[in-house]
């Protein structure tokens, strides 16, 4: 009999009630971690299959599994150290890994790879980033962080800054924010890496207000959240295109002076110079708190995928 699997493939699959349940579960996971973890995933195995580099996503998923008593197999460099290098298809790799584990967390270079994996997987698949497509679990931890910092998401003004074309986190976060009332999104990017039309169409359908601009200073004093991103050098078609987009928006001490006192700065990280280290000590710099929240959200997600949530 075919099992009804809970995959995490894209941010559009989350509606508001599900987000609220997930955030409540993540909050409980904060207590689980404080208590030293539990054993609810004892005997369960996660495969982490990363065809692209990662620090936070892979390690927080692995930590999540360990914190809940499960174990992890996998490769941090699947492009070189899995049989993909011998020509094995993604589908065959997933069919094989299905036999070895209970949940697969995969990052891949190609948009849509997680959906292809889920189509043949016999266990839940979690999309840990598919090229320039989506990064749904990052958006979930971003939204969890915003909700935790402000006590709400409704009514907030969120400025997404930097590489909005190749930066998959902003696509997923836009889809998540579409679940909330009276949010306003400012897309601040160089002309050659603005937010893609398909993201704007989705926001239009959902009635979400947004504007596109190249002027970060124009919204510095009114945004509740400044969501800075790295210019994704590795995804540009040419060095010339990358250079057109790089170095435009730097958050530094002078920028802090222009921000609201109750605003926060988020960044999915890693950063590559777009937030100066002098900003880190300011209480509004929430990006390291944000990265820790990734552990709690991923614990809640894995427990849900394995039907072992509270
Ligand atoms: N935010 C994020 O996806 O970080 P990593 O690339 O280090 O996983």
What does this entry look like structurally?
- 47% of the residues are buried.
- The model has no long low-confidence stretch (mean pLDDT 96).
- With 310 residues, this protein is an alpha/beta fold.
- Helices cover 40% and strands 15% of the residues.
- Helix 1 (16-34) packs across helix 12 and helix 6 crosses helix 12 (287-305).
- Residues 54-57, 129, 135, 138, 268-270 line the site of phosphoric acid mono(formamide)ester (CP).
Which key phrases capture this entry?
alpha/beta; Rossmann fold; single chain; binds phosphoric acid mono(formamide)ester; five-stranded parallel beta sheet; 2 domains; globular; 310 residues
List the helices and strands and how they pair.
Blueprint: H1 16-34, E1 45-50, H2 56-67, E2 71-75, H3 78-81, H4 90-98, E3 103-108, H5 113-120, E4 125-130, H6 136-150, E5 157-161, H7 168-177, E6 184-188, H8 197-206, E7 209-213, H9 216-220, E8 225-228, H10 239-245, H11 253-258, E9 264-266, H12 287-305
Parallel strand pairs: 1-2, 1-3, 3-4, 5-6, 5-8, 6-7, 8-9
Bound molecules: phosphoric acid mono(formamide)ester (CP).
């Amino acid at each position: 009999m075919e099992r009804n699997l809970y995959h995490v493939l894209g941010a559009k699959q989350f509606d508001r009630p599900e987000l609220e349940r997930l955030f409540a579960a993540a909050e409980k996971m904060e207590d689980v971690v404080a208590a030293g973890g539990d054993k609810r995933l004892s005997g369960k195995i996660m495969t982490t299959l990363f065809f692209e580099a990662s620090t936070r996503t892979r390690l927080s998923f692995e930590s999540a599994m360990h914190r809940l008593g499960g174990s992890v197999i996998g490769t941090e460099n699947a492009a070189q150290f899995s049989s993909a290098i011998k020509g094995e298809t993604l589908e065959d790799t997933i069919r094989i890994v299905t036999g070895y584990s209970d949940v697969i967390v995969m990052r891949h270079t190609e948009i849509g790879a997680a959906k292809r994996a889920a189509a043949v997987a016999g266990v839940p698949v979690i999309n840990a980033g598919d090229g320039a497509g989506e990064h749904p679990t990052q958006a979930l931890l971003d939204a969890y962080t915003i909700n935790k910092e402000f006590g709400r998401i409704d009514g907030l003004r969120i400025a997404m800054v930097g590489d909005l074309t190749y930066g998959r986190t902003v696509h997923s976060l836009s889809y998540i924010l579409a679940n909330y009332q009276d949010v306003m999104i400012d897309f601040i990017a160089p002309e050659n890496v603005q937010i893609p039309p398909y993201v704007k169409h989705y926001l239009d359908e959902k009635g979400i207000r947004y504007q596109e601009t190249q002027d970060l200073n124009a919204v510095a004093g009114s945004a509740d959240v400044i969501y800075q991103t790295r210019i994704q050098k590795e995804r540009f078609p040419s060095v010339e295109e990358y250079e057109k987009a790089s170095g435009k928006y730097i958050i530094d001490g002078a920028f802090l002076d222009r921000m609201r006192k109750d605003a926060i700065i988020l960044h999915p990280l890693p950063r590559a110079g777009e937030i100066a280290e002098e900003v880190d000590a300011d209480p509004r710099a929430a990006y390291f708190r944000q990265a820790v929240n990734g552990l709690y959200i991923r614990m809640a997600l894995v427990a849900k995928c394995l039907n072992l949530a509270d």
